[in-house]
């Protein structure tokens, strides 16, 4: 199923005026947003059933965030793609801790607390992202029309992915456990970098004239799988490690296929020699 | 020339102001938490943002020795020096505020100085280019000619004296800002050291990326014409600092 919709994007020319370009989209951004938010919030809250659920659903917000990074970085940020990923998680970590801290004062029962915490964290992340994007657009005067929306999406997605992984490491999305198992141990710094890399790496690696959304998202899913696997290694959770590795094999082979499809030509260079 | 006056005139008063804020020390714990946190986080954000403008970031062109500065992006340099500053500040977390602040500042300045020095070794002995800048005719500090040493078609290469001094000021300002945010979260809001550290890191990154978008990816130091845009970043960091102060207060309120 390949729905190709046209998205109007604009790029900034050297002289500073905004030009519009058409960019192909194989998977609609709205679908990614909806799946990212719903799976992220309800799956992340299910960490108490099994941490592997929260670890694996983190891939959904990562896909959403990577797609938003793709949209905004198409314009050329001037600082390289990594900056926006780090900004996403810089604001995101404050929002994620806020969402987690909120679960400590709620008393609705474990699952509802977690859902509220995740939802509030995502909304706060969206607010911080919107604010950062607004400042970039209006005060710093970046010439990227979609900056505010994409920054909002990137920080919200980064927050949600980080919260899912926090739930996966803690085994329950509630403040006392998260503080003891994720923050005090310093694992949050690892999760932070994993999330930032998963958001920024796909487009950073795939960008160029032959970039396609499918390939970038396949790489994003692969990064998400690696993230889930490492989270499993950190918590020594065999289910999450196995699920992560299986997802990695599937997404990596998909990415490999798409890379070959998008390549101008695949030839054998002579190194290494073909053994007879 | 006026360039030195601009560079030193902004950084030294800011460092003095930060030191005065730090000398007040435990006084910040005696006033209302919300106000103390608001002032310290906002001022820390401003210091971080201005600090980034002083760091000679060359980006991808500098990695090929075709532009002046360290050959990597702002975010990476800010991370390298700023996080070192946060760690050195956090190592002193039980000492007075002024020790936390200056330890952060010196840690970050040392890290960026080592980065620039090793970068210069590579540029001079590896690539074989003399450190020089195409943005100014004479180095504002040493007064040495720059133009004869700039390879045609490039914007300079390596890290000349003015960029090196500027980078050290950037490290001092950024590290002091990080230390100030850390102190506010740890002592004023009474968060645990790990929680305060990771939250300060988030605030540090958001501010440094705002600053890096303001300079459009590359800057040579305070002598660069792009440095004139610093006021826009200051406004942004004040707004972001206020919002961050409110959210960090909410975290500490719910954690208590």
Structure description:
The complex is a heterodimer of chains A (276) and B (256). Chain A has ten helices and two strands. Chain A is mostly helical. Chain A has one domain (23-262). Chain A has a two-stranded antiparallel ribbon. In chain A, strand 1 (5-12) and strand 2 (18-25) form a beta hairpin. Residues 1-16 of chain A have low confidence and may be disordered. Chain B has 256 residues and is mainly α. Chain B has one domain. Helix content of chain B is 69%, strand content 2%. Chain B has a two-stranded antiparallel sheet with strand order 1-2. In chain B, helix 1 (3-23) runs parallel beside helix 7 (161-188). Chain B is elongated. Chain B starts with a helix and ends with a helix. The mean pLDDT of chain B is 89. Chain A binds chain B through residues 77-80, 82-84, 86-87, 89-95, 97-98, 101-102, 104-105, 124, 128, 131-132, 135-136, 139-142, 175, 179, 183-186, 188-189, 192, and chain B through 59-60, 73-76, 79, 192, 194-195, 198-199, 201-210, 212-214, 216-217, 232-233, 235-236, 239-240, 243-244, 247-248, 250-251, 254-255.
Order of helices and strands of chain B: HHHHHHEEHHH
Number of domains of chain A: 1
Mean pLDDT of chain A: 86
- Between the first and last Cα atoms of chain A, what is the distance in angstroms? 41 Å
Give the helix tally of chain A. Answer: 10
Please state the overall shape of chain B, judged from the principal axes of the Cα atoms.
elongated
Most extensive chain interface and residues per partner: A-B, 41 and 41 residues
Rg over C-alpha atoms of chain B, rounded to the nearest angstrom: 18 Å
Helix content of chain B: 55-70%
| Largest sheet composition of chain B | 2 strands, antiparallel
Total number of domains of chain B: 1
How far is the N terminus from the C terminus of chain B? 54 Å
Give the uncertain stretches of chain A in residue-range form. 1-16
Largest beta sheet: strand ordering of chain B = 1-2
User: What would the principal axes of the Cα set say about the shape of chain A?
Assistant: globular
